[in-house]
Amino acid sequence: MNHIVIIGNGISGVTLARHVRKLSNNRITIISAESDYFFSRTALMYVYMGHMKFEHTQPYENWFWKKNKIDLVNGFVEKVAPDSKKLTLKDGSTITYDKLVIATGSKPNKFGWPGQDLKGVQGLYSKQDLELLEKNAPNNAICNRAVIVGGGLIGIEMAEMLRSRKIPVTFLVREKSFWNGVLTEGESTMINEHILEHHIDLRLDTNLEEIISDENGRARAVVTDKGDIIECNVVGLTAGVTPNIDFLKESCIELGRGVKVNRFLETSAKDVYAIGDCAEQHEGIGSRRPIEAVWYTGRMMGEALAQTLCDNPREYNPGHWFNSAKFLDVEYQTYGWVFSERSKEDHEHHFHWRHPKEKICITIAYHKDTMKFLGINTFGIRMRHEVFDQWLTENKDVDHVMTYLKDANFDPEFYKLYEAEIVNKYNAAFNKNIRLEKKSWKRIFSKA
Amino acid sequence: MKVLQNIGIVIFLVGLSTFAALPLLGTFKVDKTIVQEIVSDNSIKSELFIQDLETKIQDKEFNGIQSLSPIIVSALANANATHRKNKEYKKVIYTKGRDMAGSIAKKSGVGFIAENKGLMWFLTFGLGIIGALLFIVPQVVLLGPKGIKNDGIYHQSSTNKGWIAWLVFIFLVSFYLVLYFRPEYATNWTYLVDPISESLSGNPAGHWFVYGFMYCIVMSVMAVRMYIKYRNNIYQVVRTTSVLFFQIVFAFLIPEIMVRLQMPYYDFKNAFPLDYDFFFQWNLKTLLDSGGIGIFILFWGIILTLVIVPVMVYFFGKRWYCSWVCGCGGLAETLGDPYRQHSDKSLFAWKVERWLIHGVLLFAVVMTGMTLYSFFSETGTVLGIKTQSVQNVYSLAVGSIFAGVIGTGFYPIFGNRVWCRFGCPLAAYLGFVQRFKSRFRITTNGGQCISCGNCSTYCEQGIDVRAYAQKGENIVRSSCVGCGVCSAVCPRGVLKLENGPEKGRINSKDVLLGNDVNLMDLVNKK
């Protein structure tokens, strides 16, 4: 029986612990300084917005951990000594392990902006960040305006949060259009429009120069590279995240931006592994980046490593890429790879359809020579994961996707369907004569 | 807009306060003809009681029912006690004291309230409706672009069990207590709706008519709120329209019109065992004495429960009844929507739920078995237990207290589906069908769940939806009423209510879609 110690109780560490428990009787300890119990990080925004209480973000009831013999330690690991297999916590206590798993996630990026450590300046990642925001911006009387710096997923979530309390928000985005390093032009344009619809003061192509302090060391205003001075009480720094691994600097474990791991998720130190946001592959797998700070990949690494730790060594070998997000009221899903104009290769072409009035659009990526289907981005239409996963596995071409598009729809019943309009546009654009097939349960569930 | 809303609140509160004050107001004058009518209508043979009426209330004026009712109640109790002591059983009056007080009061109302029914209707229902709509309609603008509108639910006193929620709780519970246990206090309310009742059934309104009318009004007004809140989600819009239609037409209008046509009062969608007294002796007798229509109702009631309900559940899940047709569900989905997040999601609550709801179903079935046995064998007891007593216990404990006082009164505290989740025997029956033989499921979309918990939080039935979704499993729980809100509030498009083949409907998974195909095969196919 091994003692498996996991640092970090996010989705990666907890998924790992659950799977190890299913497979073995190993002793399991999870250490976290952030919260006593696992919670869903992606749900923190809903606590601030009043959709849920913090306890609702905890997927397991508190008795779950004891019942499954998973020991929880509330503590901050300061030192890791792989030679003696020993951890030292901030309070001086030590924990020895047989196998150590580092699953410490990320922390918000700070790029050395003047004033970035003033009071009222914060990121949004942890439970503590949420509590801080509650203090910094409880309402629009105390926070007259917030400025958010960094146009990614957390940035737009933070803008949505603050708007839910009617706090005026200025949103500084470095790119010429929102998240256009990931989204295609048509999609990014649509989201720009939607951001404005929510009365968020969106400033594209604008960088932060400096955060100005008041006499109490609190943020008072920001200065942009356009020379604008924007008065505010809160500054949200949401320019991406970086692995949270400072405590490992003296541990002799090989580090890059994250903890370097091989395909078995092993670090350079024996019996030490890393998973989730903080793990960095020596080389990205397929088209993936070496560091994937995504909920789903954290979970998948946990699922895979559990096998390895329970005497069934397995590489981390993720399937087809998928992801999702929500931009204010617009849901976004992606299956396979759709790269933005800025990052795509020459062979990747796009077919784009957008609803004339609603905030609904899709983009399908295909290989220009073979017409092979590469991936889809869908906004405002829900699509079936299973169906696209199967099409990607079977290397279907775009004609096939168009013909059977109805099988992929996952919108609630009675929703207006747009497959006919999409296929019409496709037929016109490519001079084809694709006829939509009716939805078939048989095809949809052929893999279930 | 905000100003308009505040004006709305004030108007609404004026209407509500007037309504709440009515039971204790008003003047009642019992003249000689009323006493005579009461005596002949109820074929009262107790000279003691008649004498009491004549000396104690006849030709006197009473201010408020609270000064009249106790006299009648005690007079009736005394008369009955004396008759029982003297073994004069023919003189015993079987009408309950409070019902007697109610029918006397109904005839003897004088003064402003009884003489200005239209105006009083406007000052109560009218102001309530106008005020509520003034508050609700501006939300078209105030809520901003269409989408999920749950901002601030856990910050507001009304929806986060604050003092407003407790006031609503007290009001609702008191209302139901009056309705079930002090019906004579509802007399003034009945005056307000007399003109409406008379235009429908031809009869003056009783307190159940007040309840039925109010039910429709509350549902209609709160349906407007649903249409605005969920205008991004056509499933919710269609479903709300459906429950509203069945409430107004089937539960309210048709039974009243049937009475006008000399037919039995019957709600064609109210299926046994929710309609627990369908097989009670008095009902069977009424139906059998009503000719063709009575036989048809008897036949329909049996077919509804034995064939229509389960077959529909097979194809569509129990949602077709519980959140598309049923009146209890209809109120829960309109008036109760602001409270849906209060249902308890713990494993403990689920255990309690299973014992309670199946216990009630068993109770209903045993009681009905006894009832039918008694009916056909013409005995009053089964194995030494009085059928009537069992029926009385069920009517009081389940029919009134559980379904009414707790079921609706506790909306602001325990959530809007307490009755449907813990008590409704029909829901328990449909649940069996839904769980074991149905095409309905909530499909989980591959590996897209982020465990955020919106689905579980807003599940009115207290199902921990996330527990399934985060494992990639479909949700096939017997208690699911298919309201569709989990799917609506999901930020990642993970959940879809659908009817599909039974194969693959229950899909236990350990590793979710998106990971290594071989790993999924290994772990999921063991």
TrEMBL record, chain A:
The keyword ATP-binding does not apply. It comes from the Bacteria. One of its GO terms (molecular function) is oxidoreductase activity. Keywords: FAD, Flavoprotein. Coiled coil: none annotated. The keyword Hydrolase does not apply. Belongs to the FAD-dependent oxidoreductase family. This is Pyridine nucleotide-disulphide oxidoreductase. It comes from Maribacter arcticus.
TrEMBL record, chain B:
InterPro entries: 4Fe4S_Fe-S-bd (IPR017896), 4Fe4S_Fe_S_CS (IPR017900), Electron_Trans/Redox (IPR051684). Signal peptide: none annotated. One of its GO terms (cellular component) is plasma membrane. Pfam families: Fer4_10, Fer4_5. The chain crosses the membrane at residues 7-25, 119-142, 163-181, 208-228, 240-259, 293-316, 355-376, 396-414. GO terms for molecular function: 4 iron, 4 sulfur cluster binding; metal ion binding. PROSITE patterns: 4FE4S_FER_1 (PS00198), 4FE4S_FER_2 (PS51379). Residues 440-468, 471-500 form the 4Fe-4S ferredoxin-type domain. It comes from Maribacter arcticus. Keywords: 4Fe-4S, Electron transport, Iron, Iron-sulfur, Membrane, Metal-binding, Transmembrane, Transmembrane helix, Transport. This is 4Fe-4S binding domain-containing protein.
